[in-house]
Amino acid sequence: MAEQKSKKVKAIDETLISHQVLQVPFNYSAGPVASRFLIALRDEKKIFGIRCPQCKVVYLPPRGNCGKCLSALDEWVELKGRGKIQSFTKVNYQESTHPSHPEQFILAVIKLDGADTGLTHMVGEAGEDELEVGTLVEPVFREYRKGNILDIKYFRPIKKGRA
Amino acid sequence: MARKAAIIAAGQTYHKSKRRDVNIVELIHEAVKACLEDAQMGPKDIDAVLIGNMEHFEGVYNPDLWAVDATGALMKHALKITTGGTTGASVAHAGYYHVASGLFDCVLCIGWEKQSDGDTTAGLIFQSDPLFERSNMAGAIGTFALAASEYMDRFGISEEQAAKVAVKNRGNAVNNPYAHLRRPVTVQDVLTSPPLAHPIKLLDMCPTSDGACAIIVASEEVARKKSPNKPAWFKALATRHDQPFNSDLPLLINMRTLQSAAKEAYKQAGITNPRKQFDVAEFYEPCTFAELSWYEALGFCELGGGGKLIDSGVTEMTGELPVNPSGGVISTNCIGATAMIRVAEAALQVMGKAGARQVDGVKTALATGFGGSFWTEITILEGN
Amino acid sequence: MGEQEKTGVELLDISSPANFPYDYSCGKIGSFFFKALRDQQKFYGRKCSECGKVYIPPRPVCGPCYAPTNEWVEVGPQGVLECFTVVHFSFLDPMTGKKRPVPYGYGLIKLDRADSRIQHFLSESDASRLKVGMRMEAVFNEEREGKLSDIKWFKPVE
Amino acid sequence: MSNRVAIVGTFQSGCEREKRGRHITELVYETVSGLMKKLGMEMSQVDNIVSCSQDFLDGRTISNRTIPEAEGAYLKSEAKLAGDGSQAVFYGMIRILSGKYQNCLVLAHAKMSEGSQNVIANAMFDPIYQRALGLDEIIAAALQARAYMTRYKITPEQTAEAAAKALTSAARNKNVFRGKKISAKQVLASKMLSSPIHELEAFMPADGACALMLASEQQAFKWTKSPVWIAGAGSAIEQYYLGDRDLSSAAALKEAAKRAYKMAGIRHPEKEIDLVELSNYFSFQELMYPEALGLCAPGKGAALLASGKTMADGKLPVNPSGGVLGGNPLCVSGLTRVIEAADQINGEAGNIQVKKPVKIALAQGSYGPAGQSQCVLVLSGDAKVKAKVNSPVRKKGKK
């Protein structure tokens, strides 16, 4: 205990440093729109967008209102579950915030067919070299799904013969 | 003063301790939508969007960015101003400055908090000084308990007198459909409610609420030509900050910032007899004792006379100067929105739109904001 | 429940436990103060070069004068209890992620020769045994590491 | 009522990777008292204060609760703008134009060494759809960089050139710590953080503070012989979700610049502006942002850089200070751009002063994932600059 405590005050060049960690278990309401989207991921392995009745934009991820005209959104559009990479990056550093702390992982903005905006998610089963802007991808769902965004395990390139 | 500016519309959410039916941005949007509907305006009519909250309560860094769809700020001038409990008033004042500057005609101001997504007392402990206060302080409850002990000792204020503030405000909240706690209480209820931190009991203290509030501040031209509501003009505003530690401040609860800000704002608005000249006041009273001491700081009575003033009934709905017809903070407290709700409620009173909580014939209304280390934001609004 | 009926959707919560580490520098002035607590069990306040007010917690500048503080003045270890409370409600301490043990007393103590007050724990957690105006003195921990909690608490002077 | 607002004094106390030896109050006091001394101004003469900081960076809810004494806010009006320092200048200007104040102290401070930058930045992403993916500022910028570079066929060598220019320029700037004479090749040899962004192409967390004083037209000459006027100001915010945006262009910056130009009466920015200080948190932004500012055609940022025009001795110097890559913390970075631009106008930029005369300078700040929120200020040393304030947003025909 004493040892653990003493870690909390470090001295650097005669300056005392107080080490503290803010620990709060945040628990966010997803709200009805995101809940419906996540439930469809969880229960049906389906990805839904939501259409603005005025602007006609199909938003992914779905949200309660259109940012442009502020219309309430409730017209759900089932997306085909395939799309194109708009941009991607391979992350080469480690951070506690990264999903399951892999050493390297790829994130991409993916525009699914039928949606007008892109979803940011991971890309798996492919190296960075195999990807480019425009690569066709499809979602891979987790076996045990919990009703969160990681119910999509990642997107993977559609290989010939599998499309 | 430069250009005149007025509040022409206000909107707020229904408040409760946990709004699971909306996420953060949907909660904000509820207030924005209500406000735009009140103004009969669309997002195109708005020049700028100003917003604020306290970020550690929800653990979202720069939530203004996430909320951009919900606020209608897309491609607009948008600023985030966060000053603690005073945030809602700081944002409302920023709305005034924006319009008075001549650069903007119609500014949407938003304050919000979704406290149930996080932990309020933990967030407030995180607000205290990391080296000198954090290990021992116990949120706002602890701070006001310290302040109340000093106040009671100095002026002989009783717990019964403080309890009367809760009775009055909770009674008023019955008339406010937006209030979080709408069940009236008695002095006995307050005195026998569970002790939180001596001498503060559960019913002496504000709740923690999820909620949001939005107002539109507009130029004179917009206010006169486009507003469906009677404008509530900014007559005076004043802000005061203080030294960093609560322990620096002599006679904590009497708030030298409030006294100093009142002096400036009263001078600007020509207020010499606040009890007569104000028709209504909305206080940011986090606890019962605070309302009593702020009667004094605001010159409604002499120093130490807050207890007698509540006894006299002057600040009741039927009194000479009703304080907190909305039910005040003791009935609803969504921190980043709270100070703006005070301004919005004062504006509704001036507009004559306060429904069952309306005070007759309001011309001049006062709103206070509280935050940080006993900081103040005062707003005086006026009709016609 | 009511909300579910209202929205017609099973409402989900997304849990996201926060863990934000910080290393706060005590700076020159804070380090001097905490080292004196640790090594000498003494309190030092910082005196304003203009108005002469002695500040504790110590700081580089006096707000009202906007003048630098330029002198260390030994204050305490006794003082007067000016505000106090006993905390009964249980709450999450973000520094540990756990509930802070209650009840506990804390207060604002004006140390002798200081002009501002210091906030800290009190030995008493029974409000009836505390009174504004009481003389108090600091009780130090055996093991000290250079932080405010090197002071165990303030107890009434017998 | 003041029709225009001037910067009448600036002060930088210098940024470092870590200022472990200093408490935030010590840092802010050093900075603000330094400015006051330079101006010969008493704190009692300061009307009000706008500070810029972030609760998450400072590890304190209400980050401005630490500094009221150190910044002189005792019984004064202070407002904390929790965004970028450039916006704090904009807001300070607005407060003076409102007629309530004659001057405004604007400061920004951050000690990023005390927090964990990527953990904090991750909290900027919404907890429902994005946070669990591990996104942070570097990753968001990398996604933008790839989209931009793909669309305009920009090579890694070209963005590395921008980093090399920035770091080499920063070597002459005494207020930053990361400068060194370096080649594009060396930049490309640094660790890949998140492709295509290398370590030397990304900003580095830093500690620092800076401040400036704004004054009304009536009061400006009381404090300086050479006020720098804020001739134009504009800001805008774009979509939050990266997939909502066209990441290959900076739409919010384009809009912010349009507003600032309208207010300043600038029609041909590439000809009328003498110097630019922009917030290059990442190297590709030094290519992309001049396009949004109308200094070159879309996709031509790399060609502009290669032409030498934006070098310190070129016709349109961009970031002679090295910009954010030289080593500025968040919040402070945007205010530093404004200070650098103002100092260049007054010939007070020391050994990074450009040779050409600078009359009109542009400063840009941003915050948020992939530059979501943008602010542009146009500064002018010309006393005959348009005396009337045009609204940056009001539509024509609206009286």
Short structural description:
With 384 residues, chain B is of the alpha/beta class.
Give the helix/strand layout.
The complex is a heterotetramer of chains A (163), B (384), C (158) and D (399).
Chain A: H1 2-6, E1 9-12, E2 15-29, H2 31-44, E3 48-51, E4 58-59, E5 75-78, E6 83-91, E7 105-112, E8 119-123, E9 136-141, E10 152-157
Antiparallel strand pairs in A: 1-2, 3-4, 3-5, 6-7, 6-9, 7-8, 9-10
Chain C: H1 2-7, E1 13-25, H2 27-40, E2 43-48, E3 54-55, E4 61-62, E5 67-75, E6 78-87, E7 92-93, E8 98-99, E9 104-111, E10 118-122, E11 135-140, E12 151-156
Antiparallel strand pairs in C: 2-3, 2-5, 4-5, 6-9, 6-11, 7-8, 9-10, 11-12
Chain D: E1 5-12, H1 24-39, E2 48-52, H2 55-58, H3 68-71, E3 77-81, H4 85-97, E4 103-111, H5 117-122, H6 137-152, H7 156-170, H8 184-189, E5 192-194, E6 197-198, E7 207-216, H9 217-223, E8 228-237, H10 251-264, H11 269-272, E9 275-277, H12 285-292, H13 301-306, H14 332-345, E10 360-367, E11 373-380
Parallel strand pairs in D: 2-3, 2-4, 9-10
Antiparallel strand pairs in D: 1-7, 1-8, 4-7, 5-6, 8-11, 10-11
Helix pairs in contact in D: 4-14
Structure overview:
The complex is a heterotetramer of chains A (163), B (384), C (158) and D (399). With 163 residues, chain A is mainly β. Chain A has one domain (31-157). Chain A has helices at residues 2-6, 31-44, and strands spanning 9-12, 15-29, 48-51, 58-59, 75-78, 83-91, 105-112, 119-123, 136-141, 152-157. Chain A has a five-stranded antiparallel β-sheet, with no helix packed on it. In chain A, strands 4-3-5 form a three-stranded antiparallel β-sheet. In chain A, strands 1-2 form a two-stranded antiparallel sheet. Chain A is globular. The relative contact order of chain A is 0.15. The longest helix of chain B has 17 residues, at 139-155. The mean pLDDT of chain B is 97. Chain B has two domains: 5-120 and 209-232, Thiolase/Chalcone synthase (Peroxisomal Thiolase, Chain A, domain 1), CATH 3.40.47; 138-207 and 235-382, Thiolase/Chalcone synthase (Peroxisomal Thiolase, Chain A, domain 1, 3-Layer(aba) Sandwich), CATH 3.40.47. Chain B is globular, with a radius of gyration of 19 Å. Chain B has 16 helices and eleven strands. Chain B has helices at 24-39, 55-58, 63-66, 68-71, 87-100, 120-125, 139-155, 159-173, 187-192, 220-225, 256-269, 274-277, 288-297, 306-312, 328-331, 335-351, and strands spanning 5-12, 48-52, 77-80, 106-114, 195-197, 200-201, 210-219, 232-240, 280-282, 364-371, 375-382. A nine-stranded mixed β-sheet of chain B has the order 3-2-4-7-1-8-11-10-9. Chain C has two helices and twelve strands. Chain C has helices at residues 2-7, 27-40, and strands at residues 13-25, 43-48, 54-55, 61-62, 67-75, 78-87, 92-93, 98-99, 104-111, 118-122, 135-140, 151-156. In chain C, the strands form three sheets. Chain C has a five-stranded antiparallel β-sheet, with no helix packed on it. A four-stranded antiparallel β-sheet of chain C has the order 3-2-5-4. A two-stranded antiparallel ribbon of chain C has the order 7-8. The longest helix of chain C has 14 residues, at 27-40. Chain D has 399 residues and is α/β, with parallel strands linked by helices. Chain D has a domain at 5-116 and 205-223: 3-Layer(aba) Sandwich (Peroxisomal Thiolase, Chain A, domain 1). In chain D, 33% of the residues lie in helices and 18% in strands. Chain D is built from 14 helices and eleven strands. Chain D has helices at 24-39, 55-58, 68-71, 85-97, 117-122, 137-152, 156-170, 184-189, 217-223, 251-264, 269-272, 285-292, 301-306, 332-345; strands at 5-12, 48-52, 77-81, 103-111, 192-194, 197-198, 207-216, 228-237, 275-277, 360-367, 373-380. In chain D, the strands form two sheets. Chain D has a nine-stranded mixed β-sheet with strand order 3-2-4-7-1-8-11-10-9. In chain D, strand 5 and strand 6 form a beta hairpin. Chain D is globular, with a radius of gyration of 19 Å. The model of chain D has no long low-confidence stretch (mean pLDDT 95). Chains in contact: A-B, A-C, A-D, B-C, B-D, C-D. Strand 2 of chain A pairs antiparallel with strand 1 (13-25) of chain C, so a sheet runs across the interface.
